[in-house]
Amino acid sequence: MREPCAVRSRREAEPLIGTASRARRWLLLEQPGPWAADALHSDRLDPEVAARLRTLAAEIPARVLLIRRTGRARGGTRLRTLLVGFSSATRSWLERSTLREVRDLLDLDLGSLTTGDTLGWARCDRPVYLVCTNGRHDPCCATFGRPVAEALVEVVGERLWECSHVGGDRFAGNLVCLPDGLFYGRLDPDTARTVVDAHEQGRLTLPFWRGRSSTKFAVQAAEAFVREATTADGLAAVRVVSARSDRGTGRTVVRAELHAEHTYEAVVRTSERDTPDGVTCAATGRTCPTYTLESLRRIESSG
């Protein structure tokens, strides 16, 4: 019997940094489970709605996820929650609407999301949390994700949603904090409570942080290296101002401001790591990128 991918990743101490799935625009539709391995091909989801979601995912483009409540199904109603949002290091928002039935999505004009403009719906003024529990995509997501979801719903209530596949099965339990687009991994119920408590106070929890979804993977890693070196854990404490990559050398040079006072330059090298047993429970014989800090220096003071 193969070792579960999340167990193997923990045993090998695979670095978390630079692994947040890339997404700036979000489209989250409530769809009570269970879900298929590819959630948008579930036979429980209206086929026209599923086709529309796949089109929106490609055209906007947006990260489309199905979401559901933890521990109970919505009974006796056809109402569905729809969340749309935008994540960046400088501007993030999340809005909410309630559909009378799932097919109402077919009539919505979501074009403004393409440019990151709001739709004018009800604004979510407090963070919303997603925990991947799509066990049919990878059993680790259910094994490690469900206990996290059950713990967090007691802390943040209806601001917690279970979600379909977000990427990084081997880092389960996975948590996404919206609208900021911050990813965390390898959480259990206790560490998840710690992460959410810190996030509610405007702080990152670096040991479990995978990265920021709005930036490239090497840039995510660079921000993490700057934060680790300076112990800066404020959500807005570090701002990336430039990034330059050289594919020939695998190096990315990133400049980031700390507290808008000092500028740091990080040189990050991207290389490939062999994963003969695969990066998920189903995959075999693949490689995945890893990020190494080659140098970090403070180069100027803006004061």
Low-confidence stretches: none
How many separate helices? 5
Task: Let me know the average pLDDT.
Answer: 94
Which sequence of strands runs across the widest sheet?
A: 5-4-3-1-2-7-6-8-9-10
Return the domain count. 2
- What's the overall geometry? globular
User: What is the architecture of the largest domain at the second tier of CATH?
Assistant: 3-Layer(aba) Sandwich
Query: What's the CATH topology name of the largest domain?
Result: Glutaredoxin
What is the class of the largest domain in the CATH system? Answer: Alpha Beta
The count of strands amounts to 14
Order of helices and strands: HEHEEEEEHEEEHEHEEEE
Termini gap:
59 Å
Backbone structural class: alpha+beta
Major β-sheet annotation = 10 strands, mixed
CATH superfamily of the largest domain: Glutaredoxin
The percentage of residues in β strands lies in: 25-35%
Roughly how much helix do the residues carry, as a percent range? 10-25%
Spatial extent as radius of gyration:
19 Å
Descriptive account of the structure:
The chain has helices at residues 5-11, 47-59, 139-156, 189-200, 217-230, and strands spanning 25-30, 63-68, 80-86, 93-99, 122-123, 128-132, 160-163, 175-178, 182-184, 209-212, 238-246, 251-258, 262-275, 286-301. Strand 6 (128-132), helix 3 (139-156) and strand 7 (160-163) form a beta-alpha-beta unit. A 10-stranded mixed β-sheet has the order 5-4-3-1-2-7-6-8-9-10. It is 21% helix and 31% strand. The chain has 303 residues and is of the alpha+beta class. The chain folds into 2 domains: 1-214, 3-Layer(aba) Sandwich (Glutaredoxin); 217-303, no CATH class.
